[in-house]
Amino acid sequence: MKSCLTNNRIWVSRLKDVGILSAEECKEYGVTGPVLRAAGVKWDLRKAQPYSGYEKYDFEIPTRQNGDTYDRYVVRMQEMRQSVRIIRQAVDGLAEGPIMGKVGKVIKPAVGEAYVSIEAPKGELGYYVCATGSTQPVPLPALRPPSLVNLQALDRMIRGGLVADVVAVIGTLDIVLGEVDR
Fold first, then answer.
1. In CA terms, which of 19, 24, 78, 179 is 20 to 30 Å from 151?
2. Do the Cβ atoms of 143 and 128 come closer than 8 Å?
């Protein structure tokens, strides 16, 4: 992997062994996504429970072992490369001709409820979906926003570290405060 940062001795020394979260701790906190994979757990919903055609694409689940800030950075860099790999396969698989599907103006979903989750860039993003038979959706917030779930481990990750490390650790958690503030 080539990057100006990945092998930079200053970058590596500031991120290595900072904000460590083990695989067991990740599972205890319910952490998913790159944070979990940086701790050595090879889990990605696109492989474990394929949806939207992901089963057709050849891609790897990047993992590391230390669960530190540097490993979370490396996993994210590798995931970007895997995303490009998926995009290239998807583009190569596009059929010739029109690409707009014909969908009615009003969609009336079946009555019922379900929990649906996807592998978002920060981890598992889950929604509880409820349909009452109306054409108007029942507004519900995300049931499992990865920023909120992953942020729960922050105290554990920064305890005993430097104040200056907090910024790096939060950066590799990749939180979005709007997702946390529910």
1. 78
2. yes
- Cα 54-86-58 angle, rounded to 5 deg: 65
The Cα-based distances of 89 to 64, 75, 78 in angstroms read 25, 21, 17
CA 62 to chain centre: 12
Rounded Cα gap, residues 28 and 25, in angstroms: 5
Q: Which residue has the tokens 């072992």?
A: 65
pTM tops 0.85: yes
Sheet containing strand 142-144, edge to edge, reads: 112-120, 123-131, 142-144
- Residue 121, H or E segment: none
Q: Tell me which of 94-103, 122-131, 134-143, 151-160 is least confident.
A: 134-143
Instruction: Give percent of the chain with pLDDT exceeding 90.
Output: 68
Q: How many CB atoms lie within 10 A of CB 37?
A: 27
Nearest to 157 by CA among 149, 165, 147, 148: 165
Q: Which of 99, 111, 179, 100 is nearest to 146 (CA)?
A: 179
Least confident of 18-32, 73-87, 99-113, 160-174: 99-113
pLDDT at 2 over 70: no
